[in-house]
User: What shape does this take?
Amino acid sequence: MTNSEYFYGLGRRKSSTAKARLMKGKGSITINQKPAAEYFCGNEAWLSELIVPLRLIGKEKDYDITILVDGGGQSGQVDAIKLAISKAMSAMNDDLRGTLKKAGLLKRDPREKESKKYGLRGARAREQFSKR
Assistant: This one.
């Protein structure tokens, strides 16, 4: 693996889309040209959630990750990033695919927001019934 070689993964969750590039490095994570801690305002729960795929194989400090994420809120973005990193790792080494799959990291969460229906206040919420 040369310095410029990278592995690509795409992850989606709710209305978020994340594109991850995995390269040999020192363990830095960059999201939309910002350090991950700055992007998520130092939220330790989300930062630790990001590196679950790397921690699973014990390579947290071996790869630099560059991520472009778009759409949705931060919770959906974290899940999209996690899926993108997992897909990039399975593209890098096919032997890791079984481990990641067993941990449930290669499965996309299909739940999306249900669309609003005409005549209703929301997707299912109706106007309050008034007898008189």
Summary: Residues 100 and 118 are 42 Å apart (CA to CA). The mean pLDDT is 92.
